[in-house]
Design goal:
Layout lengths: L7 E3 L4 H4 L59 E2 L2 E4 L5 E2 L13 H9 L4 H5 L10 E4 L8 E2 L12 H24 L3 H7 L3 E3 L19 E3 L7 H5 L7 E5 L3 E3 L3 E7 L5 E7 L2 E3 L4 E4 L23 H7 L2 H21 L8 H10 L7
Antiparallel strand pairs: 1-8, 2-6, 3-5, 3-7, 4-7, 9-14, 10-13, 11-12
Helix pairs in contact: 4-5, 8-9
């Protein structure tokens, strides 16, 4: 898509662009399972900003500017999802990473000192969640495997070296975070996390660490039709429907920042900004969201980085939905090749009949 010059968008847009009530920068929701339950200062004793907090833009008062509803190109947090086990025969203990410094987790230490938190609240550790004593660990809680300093914003448009740097930054953070929990966190957390480790039979060529960075969103085509909030919430009908989506609009945290809380006499407090979860009914995804505009390309179909707003992509981005779109794109590409026509001239009713014949659900 990018190579042939098809236009695309990156990050969240403003509310006004597509008339989306939930788009753009979000308020400092509190409390939330993805936010801090107590007020914590973002500053170290010397007045510097603590690690893992994104420096905000300041307004004329020197206060962080919220600009609610504005688009800022912010991306959902990236991170490494790790596969862990508590079975000693298959467990690789967490080892001290190079240049490890426990003091960089001062914000986490403050949080753990202020609130009683169990290890499962930080990592979602569930014994036996997966076969053979394994557990898939995703982000959970206000301080997690997600990296929230905004460093992922250069990834989508970055060259190989830039992307490698972002990936290494996230992997190094993950290694340091897990080692901290197993060695320098409060005793009850250390005891639980130290029972776990990487799986010796998973990713053996990288010592148990996953190969892939979890890129929740990146480039999105600006195509023939941009799927948006109203399509999802209102269940809008599309005559060229090729798949149904149904997952919540699920926008994970975008950044960890801070603001003054005037209701507490201008006390500075950390918060994780950007999380959003909105229930939706099953909704139609039109074929036009898989095709570029005719003037941009006639021989390209984009089922994953499809034409959708950042908000809509927060629902579409689930693997089952992407598989449905891949199925539709594959059949459409085959038809276009057989008939020697542009992808915009695919016989959509014939495509829909083929999808239905192969088990695709196009309506309820």
């Amino acid at each position: 898509m990018a190579h042939v010059g098809v236009p695309y968008a990156v990050g969240r847009e403003s509310r006004e662009l597509y008339g989306e009530a939930s788009a753009g920068r979000q308020p400092a929701y509190r409390p939330s399972k993805h936010n801090f339950q107590v007020m914590l200062s973002p500053f170290a004793d010397d007045g510097s900003l603590l690690p893992f907090i994104r420096e905000p833009e300041l307004d004329e008062r020197g206060w962080p500017a919220e600009r609610l509803g504005e688009g800022d190109g912010g991306l959902q947090a990236y991170g490494f999802r790790v596969c862990l086990t508590d079975r000693d025969a298959n467990r690789i203990p967490f080892t001290e990473p190079e240049a490890y410094d426990a003091s960089e987790f001062e914000l986490l230490a403050r949080y753990l000192a202020a609130v009683h938190v169990e290890a499962r609240d930080l990592l979602g550790l569930v014994p036996g969640l997966l076969p053979n004593g394994k557990c898939d660990v995703n982000s959970i809680g206000p301080f997690s495997l997600n990296v929230l300093d905004g460093s992922n914003r250069v990834y989508p448009g970055g060259d190989d070296a830039t992307r490698a740097h972002v990936r290494e930054r996230h992997l190094s953070y993950t290694q340091r975070f897990l080692f901290y929990l197993a060695n320098d966190a409060p005793p009850h957390i250390r005891a639980e996390v130290a029972r776990w480790g990487l799986c010796a039979d998973e990713f053996p060529d990288s010592d148990g660490w996953p190969h892939q960075l979890y890129v929740r969103d990146g480039r999105r085509m600006v195509g023939e039709y941009v799927l948006r909030e109203s399509d999802l919430l209102n269940g809008r009908r599309h005559d060229d429907v090729v798949a149904l989506g149904s997952y919540n609009i699920d926008i994970r945290e975008v950044e960890r920042t801070w603001r003054y809380l005037p209701e507490y006499v201008a006390t500075p407090a950390v918060f994780n900004e950007g999380y959003l979860s909105v229930a939706v009914p099953p909704y139609a995804i039109p074929y036009r969201s898989l095709t570029p505009r005719r003037q941009d390309a006639e021989n390209l179909l984009v089922p994953v980085c499809l034409s959708a707003s950042h908000l809509a992509f927060g629902s579409v981005r689930m693997e089952p939905t992407l598989m449905l779109l891949g199925h539709a794109a594959g059949l459409a590409a085959a038809q276009a090749a057989r008939r020697d026509v542009a992808v915009q001239d695919v016989d959509v009713p014939a495509l829909q009949r083929a999808l239905l014949d192969e088990g695709q659900v196009l309506s309820l």
